């Protein structure tokens, strides 16, 4: 048990660490050489093309203007200067709504902190049972300020219960206002936006196979019959996952080629670089690297061409999925919200995600397997949450010093050094766990992908929710009740429904100091590390050294990243949970939460303005999750307080608390029915008014041409990036596309020809992408390594 | 504990009772005087207008054809003769689907019974632990045939687990097939039906109030904007609940008038009947009854006219609810399935129930209160299920002999008789409980009405679901674990999640004999009582004696009743639960279940063909509930078996069972996504093909005229029944409707005038009701006493 002094020391250390990070950041960011690491967003949005500052040789790399060093903390006021509406235009609604989570945290916890500290500390301190108990129990000063200090059967518990009611009411009030705000921001965002292709597009899955008809014919005849006034055509989807693999391989090879080419160009006097052709470049024949990679890439290109032709010609590679185009938002809205077919598992329509947001690979998953996939993944996530310690313990039992010496005997002398030995003995067992926690979000993302969601935004939301459950069980409950999650599960199964909150409730006050330290390490120092961007900084400079030839390459080497929703939102929700649970129990924890929210708000505001570049825009689709998790935190806190008080024998006051969870739940149900449809559906009123407005302002808009290749499958775009090399491919493609029928339905042929034309004159960017002013399109399979393709369109001309 | 012989005696008694009922029924039904009690459906459908049989005076009342007495059991083969499709035409899809629940029961339990008896009885008997334990435990022969007889740690439990898997697979297979069948029957029913008004009608609730505009204007402008191609008009809804009360009062008075009139007419020589005007006809001045009632009714008519005018003129009595008419099924389908407004609590659209099915009174409930109402009722139902014993125990403590003597001293001498005293002492305490159980369905129906559902079919489904929970907790669990439901609840809250199934599982085999008796009393004899129709028989003859003047009155006196879904479906589900739970535990219970299903199937088939007259048609909307409750029974049975086996220390075999509930649940989720939309939504494909078909066969159908007064509020119909008396009212009504704007939107004025016309030439039945060939419309407030109004249209001409 830590005392107040211990916590003070810990706080000091963490504050110093954070300050060190901030100082490093402040110094690094004003160096021109790092400009693309700390301000990539401005390069992407076109606000900057080269570092500001002096133009002499040294000045290109190091900041020589010493005045700027004096104002090195001025990023903080700068971050606050941009208004919310400017942020929406600059970075999108997702980012703006993400920042609102932090302001919500501040709004909730500042008054709660003040009230709790002012009222509860005197109430708890003056009761003073623990002063007399000191010798029997190991208690800290902090416990004297918490509810533990109140003697059993005290009437003072009425104060705690009253405050729980008050805080619940205050939080519900803010949640309601905020849900309302975000919902109207979402609708205003849709209304203010210019035309967006996804407003006219509906994705249909599980198209039935009618023998003697192609998928395309089936789709056209079905929707021409059932949506005769609004349906104008569709775009087919191909199973090009194998082709995508080839594209990824080609890119890897191209990187190596660039690397060797650059190496040779810089030192043309040295002998040409060589490479081994065998396993991992270690074995096999030694050959000239540049020639070798050129040849391999050429072979791969031939393979890709034939694979692409196979995909286009083979009717089996046409998936039973299509993007339907409508001539009005109203028509698309109707089609997305209604059931089409007698058999409710066929012709499943839903809103199309925006083109950048589509996760193409999952469109190939047949619908029947989705239920099974969901079930299997749910079982796996459950196992992962409750049994993850088993494989790790196994690995830990292997990864000891004896094992290491046996595998690598040459290390024996090093290992036997006393200093290193003790370090390793302390370090190795934890390593497996560290690695596991590091790759956990990736693992959860892969699980979500297996579940078969077709939009990146949905994938991230589902990953976030899995991660949240992991944190809730393993960080929150796992810290309160010692023992592995599996042991907890076992205990819970063998305890009664009334005993569980009691078991947890009792231990809560004792863990306050642990969570204070947790908030400082994970929250304060972690956030300060986020702004430093150490990893992207290193990677950028490495790439700059080995791969960058032109300014365009330098653009490719930038990695702006984006808000990591699957990781950040669950951590945030954990802080809400901690704050709400401890508000009444140990109010001393609250200031730590407030500092976290304020500091993180500043940092993320800065990052969103200057660094991050969102890959997609879901228009704050994650808000219902944020809302309902905070409600869940409220109910958890009420149940735990109930459990805690029932051990305090406060029989007079405790029953007062029973009704509160029910009321909170009713509030939740009301909010859900009031606001959630705004996040799931697109009201017809809205669609119609936009349609009418557009008809009056742009009476001769050709909507077919506008939609022509919005959801064109990436397979048709892949080659256009490498213009110089692939003229023959393009000719070939032209023929192929002329031979195979155009993907749009027959009455869209004018637009299809438009699209051909448009593509072959090599406009750098399809015109409709001007509708996404804030960020470049990334047409490609959404693998980080491919994001660079997207830039070409923007950066090149 | 009952032995096999005890059960045999009990079975004999119940079989004899049932036979006595059947015999009574067989004799009563062939008496012409009872013809309208046992064959009302044929009178309503027009198949009969007077009893068959000889035409002499005695023959009108008693069957003199003695040959028919010899074939008195021929109703059984007769009941089986009608095919399912004929039943659908004759009695509607609801009735046909209801019968399918029984065939499903037979299909499930006949093979299960055979397999379980053949395999399990030898397995259980030959283990024979209980033979040695006889002196320690009180066991019966039946226990020797059950799982209790298998010694702990036996490997024989693999047989039980294997059978549980086999039965689950078999039941899921049948459930899937049956869901598929019923879903396609539903769609075929919609497709085969001629035009139905509800296919073109959507109900919209929570219309916002826009100042300066009437509700009607707001509705028209909103839907003309947002559904421009299909919306053709709407019908407003009035808050006429007060008026409806007057109508009910008038009817009561009319009944009295008829009674006295008839009394006087039969004996015109006696002096005219008199009545007291005061409290309950006991106090006050004595006046001539006929004159008095005529005067009161006349006064009431004046009051009703002014109240009706107030309702029509007062804009406040127009409710924010309307029935929207569309020119096509497609348009209505789109409007019903989409979200209309930015604010998801406004402009809530949904399918309109069919006109007979609307529960008008609840249309007046404002939407905001619905969440609260649902919450309050849920809490009340919970309390009712778990604490209903408290008020009953209180009443019981009051209702003893001393209390009775104090209230009614004049009974003292009677009560003090020994025989009567002991009878009352045994009877009185149970009386409160009996009364409670008798009125329970009514109470639950009132609760559902308070929840605010606007269709009778929904109300009945919700009542059924409440009743099911009551039965599950108080009949099933309450019989297995002794003690009140409240004590159980307390025990469950203080037991761990793994302990609960164990506690219940252990007691299950011991309660088999109790449930066998229950099935015989409630199932066998109860069903035999159902076919006898004792209550309607008595009431019909009483009415016939005192009120009936004309044949038309005799038609009114008939009470065909209908399948009592809120009570029958939950009982059925209880039998499924019992059968599934005991299939593996005590297979000897299964034959009782099979007999119940077979017998009940025969009885209900007979009743549906000859007696019941459904008030509405929901097209088997209850099937998803039937399906999911059987799935719930499966999961309950698996968990209880798991609990039972875990007390048997069958550690080797028990883990095999853990996966089964999860698999069952996955099956349920799949079925829900596969079939449930067919019961909630109307696919556009279906709507469009019906529209196109209709357009080609009836190109000049006037759909506006067709829909004109389909959902006319009952307030406009109320007077037309009493043609002769109310000419002046009709004139007044004409003026009123000309003065207040017609309810249809302006571009429906031709149809509105058609509608006026149509009403004032007093056609006996609106033409579109011919679309319901099987049953007469009951336009009125759905109170049983008003159903007679409906007949007028059919019976009169």
UniProtKB/TrEMBL annotation, chains A, B:
GO molecular function: calcium-activated cation channel activity
Stretches assigned to the CSC1/OSCA1-like N-terminal transmembrane domain: 7-178
Alphabetical list of InterPro entries matching this protein: Csc1-like, CSC1/OSCA1-like_7TM, CSC1/OSCA1-like_cyt, CSC1/OSCA1-like_N
Occurrences of domain CSC1/OSCA1-like 7TM region (ranges): 373-645
Coiled-coil ranges (or none): none
Family to which this protein belongs: Belongs to the CSC1 (TC 1.A.17) family.
Name used for this protein in its record: CSC1-like protein At1g32090
Organism of derivation: Arachis duranensis (Wild peanut)
Gene: LOC107487137
């Amino acid at each position: 048990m830590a005392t107040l002094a211990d916590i003070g020391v810990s706080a000091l250390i963490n504050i110093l660490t954070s300050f060190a990070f901030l100082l490093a950041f402040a110094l690094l960011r004003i160096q021109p050489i790092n400009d693309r690491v700390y301000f990539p967003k401005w390069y992407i949005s076109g606000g900057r093309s080269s570092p500001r500052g002096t133009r002499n040789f040294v000045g290109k790399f190091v900041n020589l203007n010493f005045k700027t060093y004096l104002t090195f903390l001025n990023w903080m006021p700068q971050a606050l200067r941009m208004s919310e509406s400017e942020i929406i235009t600059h970075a999108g609604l997702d980012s703006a709504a993400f920042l609102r989570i932090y302001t919500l945290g501040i709004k909730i916890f500042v008054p709660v902190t003040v009230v709790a500290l002012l009222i509860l500390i005197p109430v708890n301190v003056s009761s003073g049972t623990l002063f007399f108990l000191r010798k029997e129990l190991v208690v800290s000063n902090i416990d004297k300020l918490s509810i533990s200090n109140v003697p059993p059967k005290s009437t003072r518990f009425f104060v705690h219960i009253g405050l729980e009611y008050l805080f619940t009411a205050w939080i519900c009030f803010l949640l309601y206002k905020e849900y309302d705000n975000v919902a109207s921001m979402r609708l205003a965002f849709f209304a203010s936006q210019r035309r967006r292709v996804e407003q006219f597009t509906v994705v249909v899955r599980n198209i039935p196979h009618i023998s003697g008809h192609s998928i395309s014919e089936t789709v056209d005849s079905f929707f021409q019959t059932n949506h005769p006034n609004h349906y104008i055509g569709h775009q087919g989807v191909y199973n090009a996952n194998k082709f995508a693999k080839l594209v990824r391989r080609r890119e890897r090879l191209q990187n190596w080629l660039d690397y060797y080419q650059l190496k040779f160009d810089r030192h043309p006097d040295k002998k040409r670089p060589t490479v081994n052709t065998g396993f991992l470049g270690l074995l096999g024949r030694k050959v000239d690297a540049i020639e070798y990679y050129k040849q391999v890439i050429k072979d791969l290109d031939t393979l890709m061409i034939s694979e692409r032709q196979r995909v286009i010609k083979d009717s089996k590679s046409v998936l039973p999925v299509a993007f339907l185009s409508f001539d009005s938002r109203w028509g698309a809205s109707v089609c997305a919200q209604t059931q089409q077919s007698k058999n409710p598992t066929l012709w499943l329509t839903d809103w199309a995600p925006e083109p950048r947001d589509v996760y193409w690979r999952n469109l190939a998953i047949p619908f029947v397997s989705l239920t099974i996939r969901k079930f299997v993944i749910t079982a796996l996530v459950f196992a992962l949450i409750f049994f993850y310690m088993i494989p790790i313990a196994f690995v830990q039992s292997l990864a000891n010093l004896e094992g290491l010496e046996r595998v690598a005997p040459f290390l024996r002398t090093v290992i036997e050094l006393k200093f290193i030995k003790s370090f390793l003995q302390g370090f190795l067992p934890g390593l497996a766990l560290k690695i596991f926690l590091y790759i956990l979000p990736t693992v959860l993302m892969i699980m979500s992908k297996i579940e078969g969601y077709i939009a990146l935004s949905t994938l991230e939301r589902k990953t976030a929710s899995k991660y949240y459950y992991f944190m809730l069980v393993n960080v929150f409950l796992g810290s309160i009740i010692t023992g592995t999650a599996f042991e907890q599960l076992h205990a819970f199964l063998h305890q009664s429904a009334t005993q569980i909150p009691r078991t947890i409730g009792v231990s809560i006050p004792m863990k306050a100091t642990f969570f204070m330290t947790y908030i400082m390490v994970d929250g304060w120092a972690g956030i300060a590390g986020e702004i430093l961007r150490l990893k992207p900084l290193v990677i950028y400079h490495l790439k700059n050294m080995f791969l960058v030839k032109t300014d365009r390459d330098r653009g490719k080497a930038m990695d702006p990243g984006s808000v990591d929703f699957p990781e950040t939102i669950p951590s945030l929700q954990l802080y809400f949970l901690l704050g709400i649970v401890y508000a009444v129990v140990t109010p001393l924890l609250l200031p730590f939460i407030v500092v976290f929210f304020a500091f993180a708000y500043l940092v993320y505001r800065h990052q969103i303005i200057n660094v991050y570049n969102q890959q997609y825009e879901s228009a704050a689709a994650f808000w219902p999750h944020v809302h309902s998790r905070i409600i869940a935190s409220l109910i958890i806190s009420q149940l735990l307080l109930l459990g805690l008080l029932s051990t305090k024998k406060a029989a007079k006051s405790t029953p007062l608390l029973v009704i509160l969870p029910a009321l909170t739940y009713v509030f939740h149900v009301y909010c859900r029915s009031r606001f959630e449809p705004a996040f799931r559906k697109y009201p017809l009123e809205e669609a119609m008014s936009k349609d009418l407005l557009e008809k009056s302002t742009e009476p001769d808009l050709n909507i077919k041409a506008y939609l022509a290749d919005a959801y064109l499958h990436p397979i048709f775009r892949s080659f256009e990036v490498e213009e110089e090399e692939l003229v023959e491919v393009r000719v070939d493609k032209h023929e192929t596309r002329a031979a195979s029928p155009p993907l749009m339905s027959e009455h869209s042929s004018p637009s299809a020809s438009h699209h051909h034309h448009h593509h072959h004159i090599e406009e750098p960017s399809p015109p409709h992408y001007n509708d996404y002013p804030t960020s470049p399109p990334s047409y490609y399979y959404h693998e980080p390594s491919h994001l660079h393709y997207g830039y070409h369109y923007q950066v090149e001309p």
